[in-house]
Specification:
Order of helices and strands of chain A: HHHHHH
Strand content of chain A: under 5%
Structural class of chain B: mainly alpha
Number of strands of chain B: 0
Number of helices of chain B: 8
Distance between the termini of chain A: 32 Å
Radius of gyration of chain B: 18 Å
Oligomer: heterodimer
Distance between the termini of chain B: 20 Å
Structural class of chain A: mainly alpha
Largest interface: A-B, 31 and 31 residues
Helix content of chain A: over 70%
Number of strands of chain A: 0
Strand content of chain B: under 5%
Shape of chain B: globular
Number of helices of chain A: 6
Largest sheet of chain B: none
Shape of chain A: globular
Helix content of chain B: over 70%
Chain lengths: ~220, ~220
Amino acid sequence: MKKSWWKVLCFVLLLYTCTMGFLVKIPVLDGRLQQSIRNLYFHVPMWFCMQTLFIISVIYSILHLRKQDLKSDMYAVEFARTGLVFGVLGITTGAIWANYQWGAPWSGDAKQNGAAIALLIYFAYFILRGSFQDADKKANISAVYNIFAFAMLFPTLWILPRMTESLHPGGQGSEGNPALNGSDLAPSMRMVFWPAVFGWILLGVWITTLRIRLQKIKEQHALY
Amino acid sequence: MASYKNINTLLKKDLLLEVRQQYTLYGILLYVASTIFIVYLSMGQPESVVWNGLFWVVQLFVCVNAMAKSFLQESRGRMLYYYTISGATDYIISKLLFNAILMAVMTIVSILIFLLLLGNPIYYFGQFILISLLGGFGLSLVFTFLAAIAAKAQQQAALMAIMGFPLIIPQLLLLGKAARQAFEPVVQAGFSQMILLLVCLDSLIIVLAIILFPFLWRD
């Protein structure tokens, strides 16, 4: 129980998000966003979570190259896998939101494209892994690709969207960073938003630890 | 660890091989020519925005095909031999240099064929050549490294495209945007910023390639 305090915290935070997210009073500014702004508690944290999981994954890839143990490689894969799931969820929640807000699920916005590129890169990571038979070779080369892709992708994801005009907040000529405009949030919404971000990140880590345990059990059984 | 002498020798070896086995060089040149010919047949002489877009897409495909073979001609035994006499760092630097030279030649050739077939909408010619060379350099760096990864796996050609295309999109978009400056006499804001960003990206790729390549060689 002592070790799983963060799982309890995750549950409480997400319970809070899923109730207060729908109950909290939101400012109705000009009739455009209206109640759909509540998607902020679901759509935006998906990207925070994906980003965190990919960072953890690349750290394990670096650890694998330094220490050459297959365990870190397995951790890197599982974190990338859950990160990818959250990326798909982020793109789906975004498309649903955009369908009502911008008139179309996909409008070729700079950040939509960036998100799609990120997903393609990590799908390629799994394709690359699939093309090896030898476990050591697979681990080494996919770790190299993971680090290379991460280092190429994320600077461009953080820098490029600022240089183009965008429907999202934080494009050229508008306030905020490529994720959102934090200073624009009403205080009541901020009280739900940040707990939601941490809740979803914890859930992502939780799912990954379960998958890692499953992999370990599978490996043990493969030995006999 | 990188020694100038080793890099120089390896680079000379690659250049010499290219001159001796001319069919590969002519193969890529023919690939460039026929790709642009197909573009010409399907598009005619398009306006400048389309011209620019097509140019960068063709550059991308030429680069993938030119770089794909760079690690394939080396057999396992020969790789081991290079490893013992020169080391991984020297080897990757010489490969990066060689492919950058190859890509620069291809860039010039494809600009010439584009001008010949698709017309000339370029306003600042020198600027366009400089951006294309910078772009060709960046493309060659990324795909050289990906070719090194793909050479270790099966079904190399498909993997190069799967891994490379999403990775290169941001850079390609930046290049297309920067190159668009050369088509109109109007000065746009943020040009030097884009060039700076491209140079930073290229240096990042070189550093990553030098750090990560030894791990690829390790089996």
